[in-house]
């Protein structure tokens, strides 16, 4: 379970997160949507202290941290509860796909090379890349690199996986394959928070959707509640603008994302 209370983050005079509070139940998939600059990615990065919050409390997997007073030990313990899939893959370019997946097992779990690579091969198979184990990232497509990143995130069996716009850097032809892999993980009831601009995917895969704007959580609810019956005027405008952008129409109901 993830519980966040009054999370605040500023960069000098620019307050990016303005008292964020929410929870994610075990096995729940929460999608965070909203316009660029609303604080979505900053929120995700604050959860594992890639960005240090100025104030607030975070609890993940039973580890509780007062962000303003957190010690290095507490931050380390909190980070062990999650793994992250980044926008730009963040793979080590000088080692193979298999070694990228095995690396966190050797570093955080202290497994020997043979065991770590055995688990790594199994995870690459899960994301459809068993035949790419010995390939370097430069020889992989963007979608394949992102799937390696997902396998790496799964390797340490975290309490939750954080996805920071996992398709934003991909060419359109590779988006579907990554979304299908994430959907299969969601089917296994893995706790996940997904920051995404893929509205139809959020509708399909999420148990709950959070809409953020200007550093606040403006609205949250089931996909049906948020996408079909939004209560807040800002949410309504965002969804209308999104619909107009992708279809040229203003119908509030978006075509369902087809996972095949």
From TrEMBL:
PROSITE patterns hit by this protein: ABC_TRANSPORTER_1, ABC_TRANSPORTER_2
Q: Which CDD domains match?
A: ABC_HisP_GlnQ (cd03262)
Among InterPro entries, the record links this protein to: AAA+_ATPase, ABC_ATPase_HisP-typ, ABC_transporter-like_ATP-bd, ABC_transporter-like_CS, MetN_ABC_transporter-like, P-loop_NTPase
Pfam families in the cross-refs = ABC_tran
> Which residues are the signal sequence here?
none
Tell me where in this chain the ABC transporter domain is found: 2-239
Molecular functions (GO terms): ABC-type amino acid transporter activity; ATP binding; ATP hydrolysis activity
Q: What is this protein called?
A: Polar amino acid ABC transporter ATP-binding protein
């Amino acid at each position: 379970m993830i519980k966040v209370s009054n999370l605040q983050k500023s960069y000098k005079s620019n307050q990016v997160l303005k008292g964020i509070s929410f929870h994610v139940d075990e096995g729940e998939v929460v999608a965070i949507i909203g316009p660029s600059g609303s604080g979505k990615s900053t929120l995700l990065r604050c959860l594992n202290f890639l960005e240090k919050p100025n104030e607030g409390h975070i609890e993940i997997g039973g580890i509780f941290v007062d962000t303003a007073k957190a010690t290095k030990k507490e931050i380390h313990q909190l980070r062990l509860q999650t793994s992250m899939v980044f926008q730009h893959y963040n793979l080590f370019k000088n080692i193979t796909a298999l070694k990228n997946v095995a690396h966190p097992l050797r570093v955080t779990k202290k497994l020997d090379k043979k065991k770590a690579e055995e688990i790594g091969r199994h995870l690459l198979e899960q994301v459809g890349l068993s035949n790419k184990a010995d390939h370097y990232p430069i020889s992989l497509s963007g979608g394949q690199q992102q799937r390696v990143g997902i396998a790496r995130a799964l390797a340490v069996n975290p309490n939750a996986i954080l996805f920071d716009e996992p398709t934003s850097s991909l060419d359109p032809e590779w988006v579907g394959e990554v979304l299908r892999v994430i959907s299969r993980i969601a089917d296994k009831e893995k706790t996940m928070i997904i920051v995404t601009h893929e509205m139809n995917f959020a509708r399909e895969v999420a148990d709950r959707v959070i809409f953020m704007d200007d550093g606040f959580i403006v609205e949250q609810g089931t996909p049906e509640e948020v996408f079909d019956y939004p209560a807040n005027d800002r949410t309504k405008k965002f969804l209308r603008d999104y619909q107009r952008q992708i279809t040229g129409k203003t119908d509030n109901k978006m075509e369902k994302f087809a996972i095949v």
